[in-house]
Write a structure and sequence with these properties.
alpha/beta; Rossmann fold; LMW_PTPase; hydrolase; Ptyr_pPase_sf
């Protein structure tokens, strides 16, 4: 499977995820940024955090493009904003684009389906104008949205190394789940 990680500038989160997943698996992995300038190295703090884990990285930032999007079997973004931008820019690839946290959260799809059903029910109730039922459904929608609102990997850009380490730890947690999920897909 070919996996593409996307963040903003392709100097912190996505190259970190790329290097860590390459270290854990034999899958083809690349990274890019939605607003990246081509040719910049990964940030010093990214390099330091990866070195501390025994992971090397030779990286040059790159802007996401059609060629990369066509190459990828799975596109994993660092934020919902990145995901939504890519789905707008590359609608033909939409079914392959997820945030990393969405893709690794087994409950996400179920919650998303419940949320869509609740919104559909709310539209039906608006027609009948049953205020009590509408309020009940709106409360349920709020609860479901809270469950899926945490889809972003924290951005360490411009912070100290300890913040980069926290981002690395967050990525590691979700990459371990991703590796397990990929192994199930491969078998």
């Amino acid at each position: 499977m070919r996996i593409l990680f996307i963040c903003t500038g392709n100097t912190c989160r996505s190259p970190m995820a790329e290097a860590m997943l390459k270290h854990k698996t034999n899958h083809e992995v690349k990274s890019a940024g939605i607003m990246a300038a081509d040719g910049f190295p990964a940030s010093e703090a990214t390099m330091e955090v990866l070195r501390d884990k025994g992971i090397s990285l030779n990286h040059q930032s790159k802007q996401v493009n059609h060629e990369l999007m066509e190459w990828a079997d799975l596109i994993l973004t660092m934020t919902a904003g990145h995901r939504d931008s890519l789905k707008h820019m590359f609608p033909e690839r939409g079914e392959r684009i997820f945030t990393l946290k969405e893709f690794t959260n087994p409950a996400f799809e179920s919650i998303w389906q419940q949320l869509k059903q609740a919104y559909a029910k709310l539209e039906e109730v608006k027609l009948g104008a049953d205020t009590e039922e509408r309020l009940f459904i709106m409360d349920k929608i709020e609860q479901l949205e809270e469950k899926i609102s945490d889809t972003d990997i924290s951005d360490p850009f411009g912070s100290n190394v300890s913040i980069y380490q926290k981002t690395c730890d967050e990525l590691e947690k979700h990459l371990d789940i991703l590796v397990e999920k990929l192994e199930n897909i491969d078998s």
